[in-house]
Amino acid sequence: MYVIAVLGERKDLGFAGFLKKAFEARGIRAECVFAKVSTEELKRRLFAKEPDILILFSDGAFPVLRGIPLAADIFIPFKRNFHINHPVKRNGFVILSSDDKKIFPFFLSKGLSLITCGYSSKASITISGMDKDEGKIQCCVQREIVSLKGEIFEPQEFSVERDKKAEVDRILIAAGVLIVTGDLTVNMTSKN
Description:
The protein is α/β, with parallel strands linked by helices and 192 residues long. It has 4 helices and 12 strands, in the order E-H-E-H-E-E-E-H-E-E-E-E-E-E-H-E. It is globular and about 50 Å long.
């Protein structure tokens, strides 16, 4: 089971649901949990549903993880002022909508892979185009990304259907999550 920790405001809770739907559309069992549920409730949901992906959302700390051996494979901080108070696995990923170089050393010093998403050509995943009615966007992966499964996602462009209400940076982050989990399989090769 992969664990994705999303830190954001309450308005960002919809993103966790969006990720869940994206995984389920690919036949992957995903469970979305607000981090403030009780430890017993979290255990019940994990054992009852046995998800392939656990998406933990918090608008603050991740206290539910105390005493439970879960660490995030992927950390998504939507809050601008944050501190990692959630255990992220060594060699885990941080995926964020930012090209702020001030934060790079913080994550890289922790042995984490950083994937940035945005409009800048320096971001790992960028938008390279949008059709007239904004129903489809063209995403561009700027560098190789090695997934959690050890597969290499090569630099390339691909189209993504877009709900007009969805923010572009959130779509890019979701694409990054699907790439990292190995569930966006456009021109992937095995690292092994």
